[in-house]
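Q: What does the predicted 3D structure of Peptide-methionine (R)-S-oxide reductase look like?
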Amino acid sequence: MRFPSLPNLLRTLHTVSNTTGAFFRSTPAYTFGRTIYSTLPRAILYRSMPFFGGFLSSSRRMPDNTTYPVQKPEGEWQAQLSPEQFRVLRQKGTEFAHTGKYDKHYPTEGVYTCGGCEAPLYKANHKFDSGCGWPAFWDAVPDAVTQKADSDGSRTEILCSNCGGHLGHIFKGERFGNPKNERHCVNSISINFSPKDEESK
């Protein structure tokens, strides 16, 4: 009998934590920009596994051969980005849950941009509190985010449409009460924030 490798086991547990949480929540009450709901089941589910995300580096995944407007050799990306940015944005890694700069960041206006190319990705009023440990958005700037089936076969990856930088994953149907019933689960290290919404001008 063959046992699954540790990375596959951790990835499976991570997927379960992100896709089944809705079954343990009461129906949320939605307020624009943020969602408030009972936190006890959420805390039990997510805080019991806060360290799994950091182990989910995806260096074994197949490379993305899509052509994006911004194209740079990997060496140039390494010179531009910090080691952690490169690991997440270019090697499709995942930062530790509950540690990101923008996890508990809730501005009333502004725009979140790609950490690799500064393309506008999300507006401040797209962000909401999901309790998952990573920044969560219910919508994106039109055509700014590309969705692709993840090589793990169970999730959908989200990438910057301008440079192909790995942002995180999108989950649907979790009943957070937002207008699109979606959650873009994004690594803080993959994005920057500008208090001025240049995208809308």
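A (community wiki): The structure tokens above were generated from the sequence. Residues 6-19 form the longest helix (14 residues). The chain has one domain: 6-200.
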